[in-house]
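Tutorial handout. Part one gives the primary structure; part two gives the three-dimensional structure as tokens.
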Amino acid sequence: MRVAVLCYEGFDELDAVGPYEVFAEATSRGADLSVRLLTVRDRDQVTAAHGLRVEPDGRLPDPGAPDAPGLVVAPGGGWNDRTDTGAWAEAERGVVPDALASHHAAGAVVAGVCTGGMLLSRAGLLTGRPATTHHGALSDLRETDAEVREERVVDDCDVVTAGGITSGLDLALHFVEREESADLAEAVAVNMEYDRR
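Part two.
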């Protein structure tokens, strides 16, 4: 399965890099996965919330394209600050939510880490579904039509959400277990010296 971790100006570093490392480690251990850091528009570089500069692997393919991902992961970051970069700004612009909705409609699983869940909400993908987000944005999520769960990872088949920041590791390990095996997910967690929650 192709996995796309979205990058946009102001995304939280660990929201993206944590899942990326889990998927890359699982792939190195034989999982039928490939993971890339992608943007919705052509970009040579993206600056994350704490200043990390990332050179994306490319642009998110069109939904239904031969190289389209089967899983699209949206990181959060900057939602509560309401600045001109981060998840809030991307929700207001609408490009990332539109891309998430389009890929979901084409059959991809979409996942939100931290306030990336709010991007899924803005895309209309959490209506009537159980979901979670960073604790600082739970009140915003409660104002939507989502069924708010204060859990680490909420799996609703084709839509998966995770709580704040480090829960992206749990989301990715959960997905590896779901799509590959519990043994593989455990091996990845042990190698990363991460205690799953």
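Part three, for discussion. The two ends are 25 Å apart (CA to CA). Residues 13-28 form the longest helix (16 residues).
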